[in-house]
């Protein structure tokens, strides 16, 4: 049986398997250097100089891990798992930080943080308690993290294989587990604690490397990490949890798996699938009414507002990424391309052009990352360009399957869409204006 670890465990006493996992995460792209320059002496001065860092770099030529050498050296100072986890969190290594138990400070207050201030999730794969009642983890073979979890947690890849019937890639309608797929992987239905979940298995695509896959995985978790809270004390014991974008119109992330090169994300299951599939009446589902479509647009806009208020650009708003629950409440999904802007008005540049071309704003095709690109993509959901190209009138274009549509409401919605689709980004409305206009447009509609 693996030895349990707690926040007070000395780093020098961690198992070789844990050191290997740390090295696998931190050796690529020299992540260990960020830790080295952040480690301090008790006096507050940096522990490691550039000379030390060059010495750690030198072990690479000998086939050794600089991360292992750094932590071995730092471990001689009696640093603990708590110190290591604090260091990883400060430097935004969320996934690797989740390998360890973490003890929040009792003096900290319960507060909501911006989404990009990440904290480490609590896994329910705990197997004991310290003398103070704080949870400890088993270290560290993936097969042992195999239990079900009651909250946000870490799952083993083999456990997710079991609950998805070995990632059966036949569609649900054919007796399989597959419920969808996208550019970076497939989504499968799984069964966890008497409820269905959606398991997104990330896979390589033709022009993407393993590092691209890891970046996609890390970005999704990072974007959805919203708040670190302290629960009320029970029997004098403080616990903690990661709040994952608790918003009605953002899909809920339940946990993840990152065994070796396998990356999976576990979400709440959305029984009515994607807006794309429902608009197409896939599997002979009933057409969406005009009233319901308006409510879906309103909810989607509210989700975008939440992201923009937290200075995040989704970058891939499209009907396939708008999922619908039992009540057809829309929830935005797929945050692997999202980016933090730092400020709402800020435009960032990226060398890699990502997104779905049909929904992309002109500036996004040039590599600009701005919240106004999400506004453009939202406008595309009304398909204004197709109407113009086919020289149809609005009345001719309206889906004949809708029996409750009134043309003057369609005209108002089309007007909102047209402003969102302005070729000049600064002339597009912000999400608050879009929401205000949508609310006015739908205010007299009630029910479905």
Automatic annotation (TrEMBL):
Subunit-level organization: Associates with MYD88 and IRAK2 to form a ternary complex called the Myddosome.
Cited Pfam families: PK_Tyr_Ser-Thr
Protein kinase domain boundaries: 173-439
Record's function text: Serine/threonine-protein kinase that plays a critical role in initiating innate immune response against foreign pathogens.
Protein name: Interleukin-1 receptor-associated kinase 4
The protein's required cofactors: Mg(2+)
Enzyme class: transferase
SMART domains: S_TKc
Region (Disordered): 103-149
Positions of ATP binding: 201
EC number, UniProt record: 2.7.11.1
Species this protein is from: Ranitomeya imitator (mimic poison frog)
Keywords assigned by UniProt, alphabetized: ATP-binding, Cytoplasm, Immunity, Innate immunity, Kinase, Magnesium, Nucleotide-binding, Serine/threonine-protein kinase, Transferase
Signal peptide: none
Family: Belongs to the protein kinase superfamily. TKL Ser/Thr protein kinase family. Pelle subfamily.
Places the protein is found: Cytoplasm
């Amino acid at each position: 049986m693996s030895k349990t670890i707690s926040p007070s465990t000395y780093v020098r006493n961690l198992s070789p398997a844990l050191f290997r996992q740390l090295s696998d995460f931190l050796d690529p792209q020299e992540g260990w250097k960020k830790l080295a320059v952040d480690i301090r002496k008790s006096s507050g001065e940096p522990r490691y100089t550039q000379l030390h860092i060059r010495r750690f770099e030198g072990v690479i030529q000998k086939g050794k891990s600089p991360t292992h050498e750094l932590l071995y050296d730092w471990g001689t100072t009696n640093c603990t798992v708590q110190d290591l986890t604090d260091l990883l969190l400060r430097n935004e290594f969320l996934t690797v930080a989740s390998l360890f138990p973490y003890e929040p400070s009792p003096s900290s207050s319960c507060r909501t943080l911006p989404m990009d201030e990440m904290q480490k999730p609590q896994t329910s794969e705990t197997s004991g308690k310290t003398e103070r009642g704080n949870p400890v983890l088993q270290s560290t073979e993936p097969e042992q993290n195999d239990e079900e979890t009651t909250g946000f947690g870490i799952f083993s890849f083999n456990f997710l294989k079991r609950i998805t019937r070995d990632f059966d890639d036949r569609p649900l309608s054919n007796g399989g587990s597959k419920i969808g797929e996208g550019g970076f992987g497939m989504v499968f239905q799984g069964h966890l604690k008497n409820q269905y979940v959606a398991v997104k298995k990330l896979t390589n695509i033709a022009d993407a490397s393993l590092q691209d896959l890891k970046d996609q995985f890390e970005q999704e978790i990072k974007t959805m990490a919203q708040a670190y809270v302290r629960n009320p004390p029970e029997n004098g014991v403080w616990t903690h949890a990661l709040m994952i974008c608790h918003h009605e119109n953002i899909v809920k992330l339940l946990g993840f798996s990152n065994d070796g090169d396998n990356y999976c994300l576990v979400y709440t299951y959305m029984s009515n699938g994607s807006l794309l599939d429902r608009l197409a009446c896939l599997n002979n589902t009933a057409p969406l009414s005009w009233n319901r479509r308006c409510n879906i647009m309103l909810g989607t806009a509210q989700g975008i507002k939440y992201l923009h208020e937290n200075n995040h650009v989704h970058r891939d708003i499209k009907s396939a990424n708008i999922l619908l629950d039992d009540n057809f409440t829309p929830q935005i999904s797929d945050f692997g391309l999202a980016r933090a802007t730092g400020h709402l008005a800020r435009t960032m540049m990226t060398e890699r052009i990502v997104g779905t071309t049909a929904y992309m704003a002109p500036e996004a095709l040039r590599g600009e990352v701005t919240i106004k690109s999400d506004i453009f993509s939202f406008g595309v959901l009304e398909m204004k360009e197709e109407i113009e190209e086919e020289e149809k009138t609005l009345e001719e274009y309206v889906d004949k399957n809708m029996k409750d549509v009134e043309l003057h409401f369609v005209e108002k919605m089309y007007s909102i869409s047209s402003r969102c689709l302005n070729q000049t980004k600064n002339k597009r409305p912000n999400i608050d204006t879009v929401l205000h206009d949508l609310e006015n447009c739908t205010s007299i509609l009630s029910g479905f």
